[in-house]
Sequence to fold (884 residues):
Amino acid sequence: MSKQQEKRPLLEARDVSEVFGGLKAVSDFNFHINKGELVGLIGPNGAGKTTVFNLFTGVYQPTTGEIRLDGRSLTGKRPYQITQMGIARTFQNIRLFSELTVLDNVKIAFHNHVKYNVLEAVLRVGRYYAEEERIEAQSLRLLDIFHLKDKAGELAKNLPYGAQRRLEIARALAAGPKLLLLDEPAAGMNPQETQELMEMIRWIRKEFGLTVLLIEHDMSLVMGICERIYVLEYGMVIASGTPEEVQKDPEVIRAYLGGE
Amino acid sequence: MFKGMKYLRKNDAIMLGFAIVLFAVLQGLVTGRVLSSFWQLNVLIIGINIIMAVSLNLINGYTGQFSLGHAGFMAVGAYVGVVLTTNFHAPFVVALLAGGAAAAFLGVLIGIPTLRLSGDYLAIATLGLGEIIRIVIMNIEYVGGAAGFKGIPHLTNLAWVFWVTVIALFFIKNFVNAQPGRACLAIRENEIAAESMGVNTTKYKVMAFAIGAGFAGIAGGLFAHCFYLISPASFTFMASFNYLIMVVMGGMGSITGSIAGAFVVTFLSAALASWPEFRMIIYALALIFLMFYRPQGLFGYMEITNMGPFRKIFGRPQAQKLKGGKADE
Amino acid sequence: MELGQQFLQQMVNGISLGSIYALIALGYTMIYGIIKLINFAHGDIYMVGAYIGFFAITQAGLGIVPALLVSLVTTGLLGMLVEKLAYKPLRHAPRLSVLITAIGVSFFLEYTSMYFVSPTPRTFPQVMDNVAVNIGGLVINGQQMLILGITFVLMVILTYIVKFTNTGKAMRAASFDVETAQLMGINSDRIISITFCIGSALAAVAGVLVGIYYNSIDPLMGIMPGLKAFVAAVLGGIGILPGAVVGGIILGVVEALVSGFISSTFRDAAAFAILILVLLVRPTGIFGKNTKEKV
Fold:
């Protein structure tokens, strides 16, 4: 990695480690992602991929090291503040607002972009009506992109699995992020759905000018879409680089195929 | 795409019309002495209990924080109110608002530390706080201590209760149908996801708690001025349980449900006043069987405005399908 | 010196009262440990235990020990029955539903009892002579010695059951992780049932002892001690048996000191203040370990 020749990265992690009761979930983790990049984070089960996401989004605080977004430290920030700063995520184990409608799921994520205050809301004066209309229109547009518009009135829990995963991405986008973190977005999808999803991710990245970091289990899938890949094992980066480089790396081959 | 949010204003207008008619009927029953004084008092209590149930529902149902100390906030509003009217001859409206504000302030004060707790721990902590409030009041000589506060002017009447209830319903319904309310719903559904969507969960939990407490305080003021004397014994956690029963019966997350719950429970209490044990046994069995067969309560997350025939009157043009579990009366 | 003596006297009173909290708290903590339920009805089980003891002494003319045994067995069975009828059907329901059910059960026990035995308090019969030991001005009366003695014996028995019997081992396994325990061939329904039985039996003993100590019982007597025993369980670290005992005794002592040196009206407030303080400062209690939620 030659960081010197690149401009300042959008997100950067320096020597981050996370210790849970004596157990190192992530250690000496160094990472960066530049604006507009699509980067993959792969590794065997329990390698610490989701822990990295939780560190990036403030769910966990790093035991040592520092994470910076756009040069601003994320240390001590709570998850909602990090979302306000421009990181949105999806969850490996889907966390939708299951008893609410699909439309409301997306509307909630507009939280930081609503321009009326509590008083205007309860008295229904001022910007309330105009803003509600705007949020609804924008939410429906996002649902349209993810082929969910006709399901807007259904409860999120009643959606099929693949649709729930798409709704999670739509909801994350509604938060208006610069950096989108996708945690196994294709888990449980069939090959055709996966293919469509990858197309969709590529498209939204261009359309919304996003930077995307995704965790995936399926190597072939990550290889096809990501520009750069980090490989984690036992909480440590064992390789990073372009898909071609990573694929040839003996450490990666060992980690995935077992010791030679 | 459908046009405008005008249907919301139309719904509010329909509801206001309905409220005026209902008020006229009730006032007629009172003025015409059709209702005995016992039932007249109970009409007032129903209104007060509706405010209590709906405000508790905002905390327990919509925000998913299980509070068992609602009577404590009611007590604060009641005592602040009676001190202002009796000792300082303040106008009733000032007393009500001051009581509400005091309760809301206490709600913020208590909410910030305790709302970090979840589920059953929060339940027991709020129960404890409600009791602490009551015990503290019991030890303040200025307000009569355990014997109670005497000489309260009889200021509460049907008009006061009715229109304050309408305002409370309007306020809370609008709250849950706007972004702050959606943030609360998100917290109920999944706190971690809500936080990840940019919702400052602490802020909105405290906000819901403070608004709920504030209305409980106002209800307390109305309640206290129905009587000549109030005592801390009216605000034990048994009273909090009573409000909880109303909310659970009606449906945690339904304003219609809370109204129905408040009505049924108050009516049952009045009708079975001479058999208090039976009343409580009925509540007990009702709670248990509800949890077995209909844990979401009578109304679940539904509102009368999106049920059956009423949907035609209140529904949104061309987009009725969009109405899911939302409150819009 | 006067103050010092008064302090010691309040300590003795507090430890006696605390032993009773400890007996109730053990049931709370065992039940919470296994099914994660604040069994709001536990205090009412204790009340039923007191009434059974009362009737065993007054109607059947039994002595104190046989009366305790009758109360212990009957109430233990009642605990199992309550679990089977009210909680077992909700095994996979949200925890809040079970909590609300527990509140319902609590009301049910209180007011059906009230219907049958009337709301008026009963005077518990004098079952022992007014003996008192005086150690340099410090008075320990017979009731207190009885409470301390019986509590001690029950603790020893309970420790034996939990540590050395197969059932006890299964209980510990189940409180660690019900599902895994089940995979290991433990019949979790049976273990939960036994837990309710033991917990209720301990509460019954506490009920009878309180009757002897305070001479008075009534159908709503279980509410406050029930809540306070829960506070004791939380204070010690919920799910941890020695924690419940230590928590109970601390709570009893604090209450005795507050009523002795400040005002008895603040006694109940002290318990709740402790609860809130513990939950805020150290929610896992004195003996608890910290855990992190998995996201």
In short: Chain B touches chain A at residues 1, 4-5, 8-9, 12, 170-171, 174-175, 178-183, 185-186, 189-190, 192-201, 207, 253, 301, 319, 321-326 (CB under 8 Å). The two ends of chain B are 23 Å apart (CA to CA). Residues 318-329 of chain B have pLDDT under 50 and may be disordered. Chain B has one domain: 36-322.
